[in-house]
Amino acid sequence: MIEDFVAGIASKLGEYLVAPIGRQFGYVLFYKSYVEDLKNEVKELETARQRVQHVVDEAWCNRKPIQTAVEDWLESVKKESKEAENLLKHGESEKSACFRGWLPNPVVRHPIGRKVKKITKVIHGLHQKSQNSNFEKVYYENTPIGFVNATTSTARPVDKKEDGLKSRALITGDVMKAIADDRVRVIGVYGPGGVGKSKLLEDVERRVKEENLFDVVAMANVSRNPNLKRIQKEITDVLGLHLMNEKTVRGRAYRLREALESDPKKNVLIILDDLWEKLELKEIGIPCGDDNKARGCKLLLTSRNRDVLRIAMGSEQEFRLDELKHEEARRLFERTMGNRVNDPEFETWVDGVVKNCGGLPLLIVPLAKGLKHKDLAAWRNASTNRDLSDVKSLVELSYNDLKEERIRSLFLVCALTSGRISMRDSLVYCMGLGLFKKFSNTIQKARDRLIEDLHTL
């Protein structure tokens, strides 16, 4: 029994003493073999690096983001390969034999051989890693811009310039409250052309993403003559859906609706700008009921006509966006123009220029940009001679969009007084023009019709 115990101790001592001693001698005796192994591993690793780098370069050209693990691997390969090359050069430059080449020089070979053995394992590990399944696809797809994540919802510093227009800030705040209200599914913003409805939607979209109110936000421009394929593409692009292989509008609508309904837990906001008439949501692929009421998602809409929002699209809350008052219009002009607006040579002409824009940001901003580098003659001309081309196009579009002749006549009555006319005077003018013959059994009926027509405007 004592003999077995002694034999066991001797065996263990052999493991703990002989093996390490043998390893130390191996660094000297098998030095050349270790060096050859390292050279082969470096060569194989370089082949693997070139293969991965080619795929990475191709992905980069296609604007695909590269996996972090792949980028880290390339950096490690670069670092370890450089270290291996330096070690091999150092070994070649040292005198590794003594006694006229008869015996290896242990003082030189031992430390270099140990380093060679160690780095060979590292190089081999990197090579094995490149054959991993994770390296089959070195890139990943960008998160669709419609998906709100930690990056898009990160709050950014507030730009104080954006808070300069109080009327816009108030409307934006009201719209944000309606969007956050679970009881409201469809929200509308209406107002004349050029007042900034599209800009307001952009601000709301940004805030919704910053405050992380929805999981998915998609926006599309409908326009006067809706192109269903284009609208579908604008929505599917931000959702990361590739549906253009679907040949029919109906097929794309089915796939889009399927995607939007795939996860009931996701909160989805769809923003549709510039509606001129009823838009059939099911033809786009937006989930809705038979009454064209959005289902499973929230809608934010804009139109010049309130009836399009509340009657055709079933909006539950609408907000009117008016022209800017003179003070705010001037502030917007000054903000766009910059310091030149304070130049005494031009300052006296600012009010006239701003007034000619009629409180429409669509006219104020481009005019301010255009005058920024113009001389005094251009300022005087902009102040005293109104260029009616842009204003005319906006008014003409609004007028032509009115379907009934009675409403068009009421539009002209209001235009004659720049909209500053009392209800009583409007009623007198309209009755004098015979606009309410069908409704003039009583004054009250004519007045009720006038109120309804004014709402249409």
TrEMBL record:
Regions crossing the membrane: none
Entry-linked Pfam families: NB-ARC
Start and end residues of each NB-ARC domain: 180-338
Regions annotated as coiled coil: 31-94
SUPFAM superfamilies: P-loop containing nucleoside triphosphate hydrolases
InterPro entries per the UniProt record, alphabetical: Apaf_helical, NB-ARC, P-loop_NTPase, Plant_NBS-LRR
Gene Ontology molecular functions: ADP binding; ATP binding
Residues spanning the signal sequence: none
GO BP: defense response
Keyword Transmembrane in annotation: no
Name assigned to this protein: NB-ARC domain-containing protein
Organism field: Eucalyptus grandis (Flooded gum)
